[in-house]
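Dear Dr. H.,

I hope your travels went smoothly. While you were away I took the liberty of generating a structure for the chain from your last submission, since the lab meeting agenda had it listed for discussion. I wanted you to have the full record in hand beforehand rather than looking at slides cold. The sequence, exactly as received, is reproduced here:
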Amino acid sequence: MPQTTPDADALPEDLPPVEPPSAGFIIQLFVIPALIVAAVIGVWALFGQISASDQDWERLVADLRTTNEHRRGRSATALAQMLRADYDLDAKDRKLINNPVIARELSNLLTEQLKDPTAADEAGIMHQAFLARTLRLLDAQETVIPALREAMKSTHDRDVRKNAVASIAVIAGRMQEENKTLDAPELVDELVEITTESDPLLRQLGAFALGLIPGEISRRRLTVLVEDTFDASTRANAAIGLARQGSTAGYEAFRDVLTNDSTEIEHLLALKNVLKAIGELADRWEASQKTELTGLIEPLAEGSVETAIKIEAGRALLALKKAD
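The corresponding predicted structure, in token form, is as follows:
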């Protein structure tokens, strides 16, 4: 039988015209459900990640004891990143740097490594330096300071010692920001001893750390170091440390830093700290000192290529002006 094609005129007149689906319909049909599914997956992944993070640090800390250098190195890097991320959070959100188990495990591990004669090779020293550097992130002074004091001793490698002293300075500085003082008389004596060594870097770090632990012993030593014209960095750190204790005895050292046009990173860091110290002592300078300091700082506030220096110079000038 021959096929017939329906005539358009034979179609019912009340059928609606065929139209393509609208964008809104497509969004309701496909996009919105997809977003809901994605959100559910995202929440699940987030809580899964948080749960995993709570457990990962235990594995990473355990891996630090392995003799496999590659595995230990990867775990060290991952743990450092995890602790740094936690350190950068608001205090109320931190979970790791306040964890006493992490502080105890890392401190014990550093102490064990320092006593292990088989850990004196290059890889072992790098591991010790990492541990000494990492302990500064932990908010557990009573636990980490003893290990860092051991790492400071002259019997250990220079790289380990410098990281230990720097970590003590960071911890003392953090406590000072919280209006607390690191109460450790024996530590102060050991830092004083470090500032007598021939190694310039250790002397500089020792002076900087002493300046963050106020007291009669540290002040006396810093007063001697601020006259050390043979080591400009140690002298500057001593002057900054004295300023933290309210003393203007570092005036000449401050002038030397302000008139030095070096662009080395170490000098720029010292310059930033000097400007801050000058501002903090604004109401203690003599009139002639204020005048000279203002004249030395104004060019930095107007023409320094380093934004941080310009800002700190501007703050120092404002403080000096207000103190008139």
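Two observations you may find useful: The radius of gyration is 31 Å. The chain has three domains: 53-183, 184-245, 250-324.

With kind regards,
E. W.
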